[in-house]
Amino acid sequence: MVYTILSENGLENFYRLNEKAGISQKAIRKQKYDFLDDELTISRLIDFKDDNIMKIAFYIPAIHCSSCLWLLENLQRINNNVLSVRVDFLQKSVAIGFNYNELTLKSLVELLASIGYPPHIILNDLEKKHQKPELDKSLYYKLGLAGFAFGNIMLFSFPEYLGLSSDHDQGLTRVFSYLNLALIIPVLAYSGKDYFHSAWQGLKQKHLNIDVPVSLGILALFLRSVYEILTHIGPGYLDSLSGLIFFLLIGKWFQQKTFAQISFDRDFKSYFPIACTVLKEESELQLTLDKLQVGDIVMIRHGELVPADAVLIEGEAKMDYSFVTGESTLSDKHQNDLIYAGGRQMGGIICLRIIKTVSNSYLTQLWNDQAFKKENQNGRTSIIADRIAKLFTIIILLVSFASLFYWLPKDIPTAINAFTAVLIIACPCAVALSIPFTFGNVLRILAMKGIYLRNTDVIERISNIKHIVFDKTGTITNIRSSQLIYSGYSLTTKEEQLIYSLSRHSTHPLSRQIEKKYKHFQALDISEFIEEKGKGISGFIDGHLVRIGSQEFIGDVGDEDSLSNKGINIEVDGKLKGFYLQKNAYRKGLNSLIKNLSKKYRLSLITGDNNQEHETLKSYFVNTTEILFDQKPMDKLSYIRNLQAENINVAMIGDGLNDSGALKQSNVGIVISENTSNFTPSCDVIMDARQFSKLMNLMDYSKDSVRIVISAYFIALLYNIVGLSFAVQGLLSPVIAAILMPLSSVTIVLIGITASTYMAKKHHFL
Amino acid sequence: MSIILLLISISLIVAIGFLIAFIWAVKSGQYEDDYTPSIRVLFDDDPLDKD
Question: Which of A15, A40, A266, A555 has a CA 20 to 30 Å removed from the CA of A543?
């Protein structure tokens, strides 16, 4: 069907561009996008609208190859009312401008869906007009301006560096100085304003942050230079000043690396669809979720989400709560059963009566907790940098005033000279550069391995962790791969062979799993094979009657205890043998990971499951581990909170929406994700499940990175001592400053990057 | 010496030109998506456009 649309419009090239182009698609239900007929909904979704043109951006998860890009950007050839299409490949988003008088938004979305790119329109989109994150371009402007000024001031300072400013061209030197002054003022006022602002904010709250000594240095440099230039005693230090601001901004930019394909701040709104089908007076309506009221009857089709807590009134529900609880087994619900929001219906059509609004539902209530209300509970400040800043500021002020008072009785100009020189040379630019470059590099290295950190502060927080709390399902177990565990009377090899021979004749997924488990056997001939779809199979093999199936299929055997209502029961020659239970497999390397972690950290396991697997878990975890079962999302959150009340830094490792509260409350929330582009709850670290066994390496690497930063500080201190020894004597010339300051900065940056790369190799990240 | 003043002012004008070009580039969104254009550039102009 897609091919037909494409060839009619001369777009066959699509299949030539990429062999993997095209993915199979499901049929689209006709009324699926009816909610896009509503004017109010449209106005909340679009970015721009005038008399003819409407602009909108969609998130299209199906974008996966270069052909997708090509096809979407040629959309105007399929429908000429589409005016412009722009794809952002990494963000998987498409910005479309179209003539809405000729082509409605609904038909545009249907067009996209018909060629296999259904836009993912989620509840969050309705609110995006208020909180659309604009890319902060100002850093680029600041960087550009500082770089421009730095280059030119260096150029104008060249005669000074080379000692060419002899007496006869005094006029020229002065022109250069004034030009420099003209160049530095916009840099100070625009590029450097964040540092003054942050320092001022810190001082107002009686708090010395790293920007205080930095601003002090910048101010001292500037005022001293202005004084020198205006009184014609020297060229000033404007080259050092502009270079300093330029390097600081580069550090900021390096640190600010964001991962376009990953979002750390999602909540349930990114998970829920925008609308659902509501039955009102015999007709079907598409209502946006925020208009959903208690008592409304909603219709949920196969694969759709239950938007709010509701009671089943019609149909048989098979709910997939894998996202909410991490449990992959479908749970059956019957009439009048309560169904929680977040479940996905995997059967036919069902009708539900809403009993709670979307925002008051059991799952979404978590977000009303105060843990979600305090934004940035840990702030954006670095603890090490702060501690150093305090120390630095106090020492600098002491030394500078000491040299001021030492010189003051003897020689007033030297006194002022020494005082400002100390402030200049001690400016902790190396300190301010070490963290951005070292941690920025760590961030990049980890991202290459599929471990994404929210920002550089997370590294520091990881290094302070004392206690690690694990979630079970989906975190230490893999919900994608499961294994069969047998319990009951032990099976003989012969019986196992019989079971294998029977199960290989069925295509049911559970039969296939049994078959896989015993594939080393040789199959025996079978007669009178009977299969009751979805219930069980039976047959005669080698003279034995073997029956495998559900409780219902096996029937009454008078041995209720060993019959399982969840597992696959085995009966040989009319005797119940036992049952297989499907269990999620534990992740690879869990054993050694736990062993290593327990040497350095206190561990806890906290799960929503019952204690069925207590013994197995005990064998993985050490004795000191606290293992808690039947924990609700709210319990998990308060468990973390209680630990924190004892001043313990806690890391929470989880995966699903049910861990969201705990992840948010913890000092470091780590999410294990099978597919990093999938939905993940709000957290600090998103970790590819394949890297799970490297959790210990991550902890160690973070600690080592912090050590690198601290040792870089010591080296910066050595430079400072050399510089200060010149400064207190009042001998600091602009040339020494121009050499010493960039030299120390470059050393720090190089140390930070090489050492963190080396450590990455040591911890097997490279 | 006045020739130096002339050269300096020319160099400054050129540099300001580059600064303006940079600001324009940022403003027009060239730094927002630095990956997609690398794919886009590989597409051939469609021969069908000509007829």
Answer: A555
pLDDT tens digit string along A59-85?
887 887 888 888 888 888 888 888 888
Query: What is the mean pLDDT for each group of 10 consecutive residues in chain B (51 residues)?
Result: 84 94 90 82 64 40
CB spacing of B31 vs A179 below 8 angstroms: no
Shortest alpha-carbon distance between residue B16 and chain A (Å): 8
- Residue-by-residue DSSP string for A261-325: T--S---GGGTSBSEEEEEETTEEEEEEGGG--TT-EEEE-TTPBP-S-EEEEES-EEEE-HHHH
Cβ separation B1–A135 shorter than 8 A: no
Answer for the pair A437, A459: CB distance below 8 angstroms, yes or no. Answer: no
Nearest-Å Rg of the Cα atoms of chain A is 33
B18, A69: Cβ pair inside 8 Å?
no
Amino acid identity, position A520 = H
pLDDT tens-digit profile of A642-695?
999 999 999 999 887 778 888 888 989 998 887 765 667 778 898 888 889 899
In this predicted structure, what is the pLDDT of residue A132? 47
Query: A137 vs B36: CB contact, 8 Å cut-off?
Result: no
Instruction: Identify the contact set of chain A against chain B, taking CB-CB distances under 8 A.
Output: 10, 13, 17, 66, 69-70, 73-74, 87-91, 135, 137, 140-141, 144-145, 148, 151-152, 155-156, 169, 171-172, 175-176, 179, 260
Tell me which chain B residue has its CA closest to the CA of residue A65: B39
Q: Domains in chain A and their CATH numbers? A: 2-121 (3.30.70.100), 138-258+383-434+708-762 (no CATH), 268-368 (2.70.150.10), 439-477+588-703 (3.40.50.1000), 479-586 (3.40.1110.10)
Mutation target vs A (from B3, B10, B18, B22; most A CBs, 10 A cutoff): B22
Q: What is the pLDDT of residues A402-421, one digit of tens each?
A: 988 998 888 888 888 888 88
CA distances from residue A614 to A606, A607, A609, A628 in whole angstroms, order as listed: 12, 11, 10, 9
Q: Is A401 helix (H, G, I), strand (E, B) or coil?
A: helix
Q: Are A214 and A195 in contact (CB under 8 A)?
A: yes
Instruction: Judge whether A237 and A243 are in contact, CB under 8 Å.
Output: no
Chain B residue numbers with beta carbons less than 8 Å from the beta carbon of A260 are 33, 35
Structural contact between residues A671 and A683, judged by C-beta atoms closer than 8 angstroms: yes
CA distances from A708 to A244, A702, A755, A763 (A): 22, 10, 7, 14
